[in-house]
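Worked example 3. Consider a protein that binds zinc ion.
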Amino acid sequence: MEAANEFPETLQSAMEYFADESNAFAFMRQVRWPDGVAACPRCQSSEVSFISTRKVWECKYCKVGKQFSIKVGTIFEDSPIRLGKWWCAIWLISNAKNGISSCEIGRALGVTQKTAWFMLQRIRLALQSGSIMKLRGTIEADETFVGGKAVNMHKRERAEKIKGRGASGKAVVMGVLSRATRKNASKVHAMVVKNTDRESLLAEIEKRVAKGSAIYTDAHHAYGGLDEAIYTHEAVDHAIEYVRGKVHTNGLENFWCLLKRALKGTYVSVNAEHLFRYLDEQSFRFNERKLNDAGRFLKAVAGIIGRRLTYLALTSNGQCLQT
Ligand SMILES: [Zn+2]
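Given these inputs, the predicted complex is written out as structure tokens:
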């Protein structure tokens, strides 16, 4: 992406840079149309004329809905929030190690907490990994409990006290992590699963881990069902030891630790229905941790196009808007 010379590198310079809406708009044009040619989102025609007073384009061919704004076809579609605020929100969330609450975003940008909450949920959609590439190599697989009282409980206690997803609002989160190689940093995929049964866990592994990989887990019986024709599997029994040579799940334990710090400290009451969005957010920051702030911001920005999340879709069940 071609950015202006003075493209910001720190939070403060980003806030200043994008406070100028013409910078924010110029940046959006680069993101939207990297080749500099505006195109109609309906018919893809580039025979469009720009109406500078209203900052909209008009398509020569489309009869209905011939005018379009630069936000159409992105997570910003239909949002009255100005672009500069969106860019700052994306900068904040992609670089906040422990996450950032809608209250903080609201204060930083001068919008209401409710507006900030909605912005954050849309941004989390942009942070969702678009990759369908399976993880390969040496893989750790593990699951943990989030929400309810389980969040404060040590894994050893939890394993004894909680089996599957109870009625008290605990969710099961499953993760797979590919260990670092000389070329690549470790990478995680985390998702909400129905329960800790063999069926739920193995389905995710098969979906996300390439054939021929070596999988390390704890002694949870579900992993005993891993297909030996597809993977090699070794387990470490946490009742006896946590590490046996290369066989351990410390990479994922570290990720769970970061996740829970964010959930407990910043997102005090995450609704189970929205939990996957927070997993996407935490996974994004973890997977892109080798980039600097501006790099992580640009990576996040790449996800805004072709995605949409409406207020109605987010709040159809009257979900809590607190975090
Ligand atoms: Zn058109």
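Take a moment to read the result before moving on. Residues 250-265 form the longest helix (16 residues). DSSP finds eleven helices and eight strands in the chain.
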